[in-house]
Each structure stands twice: as structure tokens, then as C-alpha cells.
Specification:
Length: 342
């Protein structure tokens, strides 16, 4: 199969034990005819993809961590092209945008298309080093290492999807700088509490390891006080990303299509819903706090099919607003949809 996003060409071919991802810069000319399959039966998974004296640098074994593909998902063309090129180059990427803009969904759906495993985790004030890097645990007279999210992705060649990156504490962010370097590694150390034996492992990144983060801010804080709890990313942390992708809400025509296909509401109703959402988003510059995300639209469309319009509006939209914003949203619903709510 081959996908083309502008200059980014992504190919993959199926093999008995996995996939060969080919981004154009590598050439894998393996041809799996019947005779070749017989010759390769005794070889390991990695050797199978090398073929006859040909090395495939893009082999990825089948993974239980590969996300499910959503046939109704509409790939945003510009962001898909940019992210595909970055993945091809092995670059670290930070995707920034409002809540519910589809930042994580884009990564997951591209990974599904590429048959690429994803290790996903969300940052918070409670995120610890052991959770993301792992820890040594005592088992009798031995010490066993238990991978965290980052080390598991490094070891197995997965895409590390770090959600809410601007919620990670600054001191913990500094701990992962060495991993984010090109060709980076991490040294895992521990001391047995009884024998005082030192355990040490230098873990290097698998060639197919990728680091992609999502965040609501680019690390300069939240001037509008919409995303409470976000942390500052210092210049050293921000510089570990090769590119930052600013991802806003989808164009009106695309959002209407998504709402129609995902919820089954009539196109005329979906159009009115999107108009309300767009007007709410425009009101943010006037002080509105409520974030009318695509996620809100889909919930609204879903419950519009199950309950009367007024009830669906309350459950999916109005109950998420404060008193000031609720007045504005009610007014917009009355204007665009002739819906009166209490």
C-alpha cells in the first residue's frame, strides 16, 4: 500500500511476521514468493525481512499496540503531510492546539495506517519518574527492571504519544532530555537493598522509536487561564522538538461531515451545530472560557438523536459552561437553531 501526502510518500508491504515501512529514503526489495518463504522459515523475524543479502532498515513486527483504524476518520491533509514527513525523518514533534481539536487522533490514525505500535500516556502533576522511565524491583536475590512508558517504547520501537506534555513538572521534563536527543539513550541504574550489588543497563533507542507530544500550549503559560495547571517548558525542553505543529479546529465543511458521519444527524442540523460552535470559538477573544471542541459537537449530535433538542443541548453543551458563558451559548442556540432552554 502507498499513501501520498504532498512530498511525503509512505509505503508498507505485509510480511508473515510484521510490516516493512518504507519512506522512500530506504529501499527494501524483498519479494516474498513461495520459494523464498520456504528458504526463510528457519530465520528470525528480523532476518526474514532482510531477504537475500538485502537489509531492510524499516521492519516493524506486528504489534498489539497498533491502534485500531477508524474508517470514518477524515485525515486533515496539511497536518497529515507534515507529521508523516516528520515521522519519516525520525524527528520529535510537538502538536499544539485547543482541547478536542484531534491532536492525538491524528497520531493514532496515522499509526494505524502504518501498522505502527503506540505507547500512550498522559502527563499530570502526579506523573513520576518510575511511571515514565521505569524502576528496578527486588525479586528474591535478583533485581528485575520494569519498563515505564518511555523505556518500553524505546525498547520496542513504538511511537511514544505523550499527551498533555505541558502538564509535566519541569524537573521531570529535564530528566528526559537525553532520550529526546538524536541517537539518545538512558542509563538505568539500581542497587540491591540486601546485597548492595549494582545493576546498570544502557538503553538505546530502537531505530523505529518516535517521540510525539501533544499539548494545549507551547510552554509559555496560559494567558487566558483556560488550561489551569499547565507548566512552563524552558527553552532547552522546547528545543528538543524539531518542529511544532499548530493544530486548530477543522474547517467548517469538514466538521459538518464528521458530525453527520459519526452521529447520523441530518446535515442541516449538523450545519447549525457547527455554526453555534464557531461563534462560541470566536467569542473566546471576548472573554469566553468555554471550549466548544469537536468532542462537544459529537456528543451533542449523538444525544440529539436520543432526546429532545432542549435536553440534548443541556446534557452535551450547556452543563459544561459557567453562568456567564451559558447566557451567550443559549443566545447562539436561539439564533441558529431556534432552541429555547430554561
Amino acid at each position: 500500500m502507498e499513501l501520498q501526502f504532498g512530498e511525503a510518500k509512505i509505503k508498507y508491504a505485509s510480511y508473515p511476521d510484521g510490516k516493512c515501512i518504507n519512506f522512500g529514503k530506504h529501499r527494501c526489495m524483498v519479494r516474498w514468493d513461495k520459494k523464498m518463504r520456504e528458504e526463510q522459515k528457519s530465520l528470525s523475524k528480523s532476518e526474514k525481512c532482510k531477504g537475500r543479502n538485502l537489509k531492510c532498515e524499516s521492519f516493524i513486527g506486528s504489534s498489539i499496540f497498533t491502534p485500531e483504524f477508524d474508517e470514518q476518520y477524515l485525515l486533515p491533509p496539511v497536518e497529515s503531510e507534515i507529521l508523516s514527513l516528520a515521522i519519516a525523518e525520525g524527528d520529535n514533534v510537538l502538536i499544539v492546539g485547543p482541547a478536542g481539536a484531534g491532536k492525538s487522533s491524528l497520531v493514532l490514525q496515522l499509526a494505524s495506517i502504518f501498522n505502527w505500535g503506540v505507547e500512550r500516556f498522559s502527563c499530570s502533576d502526579e506523573t513520576t519518574s518510575s511511571k515514565i522511565m521505569g524502576q528496578w524491583v527486588v525479586t528474591g536475590d535478583h533485581m528485575d527492571w520494569v519498563d515505564g512508558h518511555i523505556t518500553h517504547a524505546m525498547r520496542n520501537g513504538l511511537i511514544l504519544l505523550e499527551d498533555e506534555a505541558d502538564f509535566m513538572r519541569p524537573e521531570l521534563r529535564g530528566e528526559v532530555h537525553s532520550v529526546m536527543e538524536q541517537g539518545g539513550s538512558v542509563t538505568l541504574t539500581g542497587v540491591h537493598p540486601k546485597t548492595n550489588k549494582i545493576f546498570r543497563e544502557n538503553l538505546k533507542k530502537h531505530p523505529q522509536f518516535r517521540w510525539i507530544s501533544t499539548a494545549n500550549t507551547i510552554g509559555y503559560g496560559d494567558d487566558l487561564f483556560i488550561f489551569h495547571g499547565t507548566q512552563y517548558l524552558n527553552a532547552a525542553s522546547r528545543d528538543r522538538y524539531e518542529i511544532i505543529i499548530n493544530m486548530g479546529y477543522r474547517p467548517t465543511s469538514e466538521e459538518i461531515e464528521i458530525v453527520v458521519h459519526k452521529t447520523g444527524v441530518e446535515r442541516s442540523i449538523a450545519t447549525q451545530m457547527v455554526r453555534v460552535a464557531n461563534d462560541c470559538r470566536d467569542s473566546i477573544k471576548d472573554g469566553m472560557i468555554f471550549q466548544f471542541s469537536l468532542r462537544r459537537l459529537l456528543s451533542w449530535g449523538k444525544y440529539h438523536q436520543k432526546f429532545p433538542s432542549e435536553v440534548a443541548c443541556k446534557l452535551s453543551v450547556l452543563n459544561f459552561t459557567n453562568e456567564t458563558d451559558r447566557h451567550t451559548v443559549k443566545s447562539l442556540m436561539r439564533t441558529h437553531m431556534n432552541i429555547e432552554t430554561d
